[in-house]
Amino acid sequence: MAIGIPKKDKLLDDNQVELVYAHKKSYQEIINSDLVEYQSIYSHASPKRLYFGDNLDVLRLLATEPEICGSINLIYIDPPFATESHFLSRKQSKAYDDTLTGAMFVEFLRERLIWLHQLLSNHGSIYLHLDEKMIFHIKLIMDEIFGAENYRNMIVRQKCNPQNYTRRTYGKTADFILFYTKSDTYIWNQPKVPLSENSKKEYQYIEPETGRQFMKVPLHAPGVRHGETGKPWRGKMPPPGKHWQYPPKTLDEMDARGEIFWSKNGNPRRKVDLNEHSGVGVQDIWLEFRDAYNQNVKITGYPTEKNPDLLRIIIAASSNPGDLILDGFAGSGTSLAIADEMQRNWIGVDHSIEAFKTILNRFEHGIKPMGDFVKSSGSNSEEVYIQPTLFDQGASDQLDNRAKRLDNQDTKITDFSIFVPSPIPAQIEDIVKTWQGNG
Ligand SMILES: C[S@@+](CC[C@H](N)C(=O)[O-])C[C@H]1O[C@@H](n2cnc3c(N)ncnc32)[C@H](O)[C@@H]1O
């Protein structure tokens, strides 16, 4: 049994809300299942691991490894969204099915989230990507497992360009990322963005002596104080009901440094210098991370692959170089490739053969502009996009030429191990052999 799993099912606190649905298993049922055996078919002395298989088996297995359980600092998961769809790659190969809905979907994810909670370190964070269909159900499940007090944000992401619907609703361009932490002492590197052009316009004053651009803000704040900040400064009391933001000594020092602007009537204001502004903290509405939306955007061709910049911001904010990051629904390997690029270690899991091939191909060749059209062989129809992979016969020459001019991935990713269930699935063995042959 994994360390830290509650021996009994938790009782509800007076304030707690619980989602009730058919066939909801107890914690005991979830943790008391048998382990599936996995073996390594490509190994490297590195903490980075790629698993082919069902993530429930893999998470359970990882929880038995003392050096991994409780050591993962960041989890990003982008599971199926209960769309009732069958996803194909751009080459029309089967990628994965997304057919679970309602209670079955909730329980599928809940089982995995219970294990992910065990695996996460005390300073760790989890980001869970879903859309409007199941986000509200899963928010309650996350509160149950991670604790409502560890909820941090529900990030609203613009996933695509505005759509010109004729339906009688507003266009649906958002999906959502739930951000929870294991505790309140979590890793956090405040991400910032530069001031917008509109905000810069607020810095409308220029200091004649230096040319510095600044804005004026009050030196007082609401509330009466009886200490230093409630006393007169340079013979002036703070306005009624207010106090100085700093004690008189600090105000004197600021004035000596030229940080205070005096109006004609002798009212002091604080100067805020545009050049000293380090940017504004990133907020919870993300408009800059749409998935591939034009012909120049680089992709693998795997369905539902996410924008690499989305992962860059999450990884930068919630982990540090050398940390271990886990993605249990790795798909095309976006989070793994970006974690690698940012000098983090990673564990990725997916049970789709197409995902497995795509990840190896991405590690070998990087990603390519989606608009690089190639004619599908034997077709007279319109040109369709097909991104050749190292598993396509005859595609390697084409890839080599294209790689020279298109690829910006400097180094191949090879320093990881591959784990598969026993007995080794024949198709996976072949894929790994082909990949090694090309490497
Ligand atoms: C939405 S996609 C992830 C896309 C990924 N974020 C990317 O950027 O490419 C969901 C992935 O979860 C995988 N998946 C679904 N159920 C799984 C399971 N039980 N075990 C492992 N992988 C699973 C699917 O094969 C699919 O690749």
UniProtKB/TrEMBL annotation:
An individual GO BP term: methylation
Domain of life: Bacteria
Gene Ontology molecular function, alphabetical: DNA binding; N-methyltransferase activity; site-specific DNA-methyltransferase (adenine-specific) activity
Uppermost EC category: transferase
Domain DNA methylase N-4/N-6: 72-359
Pfam families: N6_N4_Mtase (PF01555)
Presence of the UniProt keyword Transferase in the record: yes
Region (Disordered): 225-245
Keywords: Methyltransferase, S-adenosyl-L-methionine, Transferase
EC number: 2.1.1.72
Name of the protein this chain belongs to: Modification methylase M.Asp8005I (Adenine-specific methyltransferase)
Organism: Limnospira indica PCC 8005
